Amino acid sequence: MPNLNPLSTATVAMNAALTLTRELEQRILAPAVEAVASDGRKQRWEKHKQTRRAELTAGTADAVRALGADAGMDEIASHIGVSKTVLYRYFSDKNDLAAAVTVSFMEATLLPRLTETITDDLADYDLVRTVIGVYVSTVATDPNVYRFTTGQTAGSSSIAYTERILTGAVASTLENRLTARGARSDGSRTWATAIIGAIIKAVDGWITRPDQSADELVDELTMVMWGGLVGIIASDGDPQQFAKNPPPIPSPPADE
User: Fold this and answer.
1) What's the number of CA atoms in the CB half-sphere (13 Å) around residue 182?
2) What average pLDDT values come out for the chain (256 residues) when binned by 10 residues?
3) Is the pTM value of this prediction over 0.85?
4) Which of 6, 88, 99, 202 is the 20 to 30 Å CA partner of 72?
5) The CATH number of 6-242 is which of 3.30.565.10, 3.30.990.10, 1.20.120.160, 1.10.357.10?
C-alpha cells in the first residue's frame, strides 16, 4: 500500500475525533441543565453546572485510580469529599458518571497522546502500529480508569461513547485514503466499526487477564488490522472485486 501522507490523514482523523468528543461532551452535559428555569440566572447556572460536573468528573477519575474500577458511588463521593447526594445532583446515575469520565479521558489523555506521537515520517504500517500501540500503552498505564469507562464494570453508554469516538477517527482516515486513491469508500464506517470493536474487545480481555506483554498484544492486533487493510486497499474498497479475487492463503513450505 503506497504512502498517502499518513500525517495529514491521521491529523484529519484526530480532529474528527476531537470534534465528536466535544459534541458528546455537550450532549452529556445537556441533561444537567435541561430543568433550569428560563430566567436571567440560567446562563450563570448552566456555567456553574458544567464547571461542577467537570470538577466531579476529574475527582471521580482520581478516585477510581486509587480505589479501583469497582468503586461504588458512596466510595467515590467519600474520596472526592462530597456526599453521594451531590454526585446524583449532577449525574443521573453511575453510567452517566462513567460516560462523563470516558469523554474526559478521551479528550484529555488518549487523543493528545495520539496527536503527540504521530509524526510526518511514519509510513502506513508504522502509523497503524503506532496508533494501536498508543491505545494499548495508555490503557496499560491507567487500567482502573479504563475498566471503569469501557470495561466490564462500566455502563453501556460509556462503551458506546468510546466506540463512537474511535470509530469516527478510523472511518475518517479510511475514507480520506480510499478517496485519494480513487477507490470506493462507502464501506469505511463498517470497516472502522469492525476494527475498533475488535481492538476494544481484545484490550478489554487483556487488561482483565494480562497473559502477555503489551508489545505482544500490539503486534498481534497490528497483524490482523494490517492484513485487513491490505485486502481492502488491494480491492479498491470494492467488496465484489474482493469476492471475485480474494487474496490467496499461501501454501505451507514444502518439506526439504
Assistant:
1) 0
2) 50 56 52 49 74 93 95 95 93 88 85 76 84 92 88 58 81 85 93 92 90 96 95 94 91 76
3) no
4) 202
5) 1.10.357.10
